[in-house]
Structures are given as structure tokens and as C-alpha cells.
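Write out the 3D structure for:
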Amino acid sequence: GIRIPARPLDMATVHANASKIYAEVAAIHPPRKPVGQPDYPQAHWAQAYPGHWYTSGVSKDFVVIHDMEGYYLSVISYFQMSTTNASVHYDVNGMQDSPSDAPAGDITQQVEEQYWAWHAVCLNRYSLGIEHEGFVSNPAWWTPEMYIASANLVRHMCDKFGIPKDRNHIIGHNEYLNSDWVSWAVAN
């Protein structure tokens, strides 16, 4: 028996308030990425062999750059094998060397960014890793498309994890052999 008198409703105000509330909730509880989807929108997803990564680590302080010394699609498959005791977060294609190959600059993610891939021995629990197709003995593999794709991916990871974009934080796989860098890393 309760009657409430009708009153006009301003839908513009309702939409504005709903958008504001949604933004506040999203800031507190950001939507979670679906399982099996890449963290970086320009990447494809091809998971490394299950469990070939750490689910806990110390930090994400470095981006480690690797050279595959191999072919893009072969390396992706290699990391999916149960007998491979290695993994990486991302792979970047150097050149399209056959009609069945991916285009130059193509990116595949194999380990979620929330985890620590097995790619750099002593740096694994402190870093994210990127493999680049190619061979050191042949600079033709290092294409402009690869450099641009890799640079954008590194920027994404540095921005997401607050990693400084400098030579001490974006490093090569063998940097742990560089005594100057090791001294810097220990001091910092």
C-alpha cells in the first residue's frame, strides 16, 4: 500500500554518475586479464610448457634482452617442450624469411608478466625477458620492424613495472659477466 509519486529522471546525470562510479571501482579493482591472453595487446599468446616459470620472485627490476641464435617459430615451439628447462616472457620475430613465417616484428608472449620466466639464470627472479630472432653473425636479422616492435614492448614493460629506461635496467643476457654492471647492481 505504499505509493511513491513519479518524478522526472535526467538520464544524462545517471550516465555521468554511473561512469564516475565505474571508474572508481575499476581503479580499486582493475579487471583481470583472461587466462591465455597476452598482457601486451600487440602480442600473440603461445604458453611455454606449463610450470616452466617461477610463480614468485623478488622484483621486476630489469628487462633482459636475448638473441635467439635461432628462428622465431622454432624457438616458440622449443619453449613449449617438456624437456626444455627454459622459458621467456616474449619472443620477437626478426624477418619474414618464408611465406609460412610470421611477419617481421611479430611478438609472441609465452609466460605471463606476473610470473618470472627461466631465461637469465641469476637474474630470473628480478626480471622480464625478451628473445629476438636472429644470429649474431648475420645482421640482416636485426630489422627495423624488430627494433620498433621490441622498443614498444620494452616501453610497455618499463611503464607497467616502473623500470627505469636506462642502460642499467635494460640489459643483455650476459650483463652479469660485466664487472662494471655487477658492481653497479650490487651497490644499487
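The mean pLDDT is 90.
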